[in-house]
Amino acid sequence: MARFASFGLAIVCAASLSGCEFIQNDINKTFGKGPVDATTRADLAASRVTTIGVNAYLWQAALDTLSFAPLAQTDSAGGVIVTDWYANPSSPNERVKVTATILDQDLRADALRVAASRQVMQGGQWVEAPVAAATVQKLEEIILTRARDLRRNAVAG
């Protein structure tokens, strides 16, 4: 009976100490992670707990990146941004439409999907034309880089 009481006391002590910050930091150090501090907590809070349904950094970065074109539709709960057709003034016979979809609350490369449509003017009609795959990849890179910069600035500031 005394053995069970000792075992139970050990479990209660371990559970109560697990909440101590120095124990958490020691555990994190053991697993190769940095100490848990206010910055880490703030960063996790900013990426996960938002009033929108998706990662706030990706959302803002996508809005900033696609600001060259008028927005046709935005849905922050679903993470969808759709631009209206945009024609560059230097090439008025070509126009593009971009859709950015944010798929997760975490800031990860696979949490973003960009699709683009392109049309060219032929005989007074807009005709579908292919979009270079590098164009979509470049847009994704720009959005991800901007999101990482926003996150870095939020953590540093």
Can you give keywords for this protein?
Alpha-D-Glucose-1,6-Bisphosphate, Chain A, domain 4; 5 helices; alpha+beta; 5-stranded antiparallel beta sheet; 2 domains; 157 residues; single chain
Largest beta sheet: strand ordering: 1-2-3-4-5
Give the biggest beta sheet: 5 strands, antiparallel
Share in β-strands: 15-25%
CATH class of the largest domain: Alpha Beta
Low-confidence stretches: none
Structural class: alpha+beta
- Please bin the fraction of helical residues: 40-55%
Describe what this molecule looks like in 3D:
The protein has 157 residues and is of the alpha+beta class. 45% of the residues lie in helices and 22% in strands. The protein has a five-stranded antiparallel beta sheet with strand order 1-2-3-4-5, with helices on one face. The chain starts with a helix and ends with a helix. The protein contains five helices and five strands, in the order H-H-H-H-E-E-E-E-E-H. Helix 4 packs across helix 5 (133-156). It folds into two domains: 2-36; 56-156, 2-Layer Sandwich (Alpha-D-Glucose-1,6-Bisphosphate, Chain A, domain 4). The mean pLDDT is 80. The longest helix is centred in the last third of the chain and has 24 residues, at 133-156.
Can you describe this structure in just a few lines?
The chain is an alpha+beta fold. 45% of the residues lie in helices and 22% in strands.
